[in-house]
Amino acid sequence: MTMLASRGEWKFQELKDQLKMSDGNLITHLRSLQKASYVSTKKELKGRKVTKYLLTRSGEKAFKEYLRLLEQIVAQGSS
Amino acid sequence: MKDSDHALEHLKVIRGMMEKATIYRALSAPAAIFGGLLAMLIGFYFLYHDQKEIYVSGYKFFWTWAIALIIGDSFNGFLLFRRARKEGVTFLSSGLKHTCFACAPAAIAGGIISYEVVEQEIELCALVWVLCYGVAILSMGGAAPRSLRRLGWAFLISGSVIFLVWMKYGPAMSAILGINTLGAGAVMMMLTFGLLHLVHGGGVLLRKEEKNPVS
Question: Where along chain B do its domains lie?
Answer without folding.
Answer: 27-205
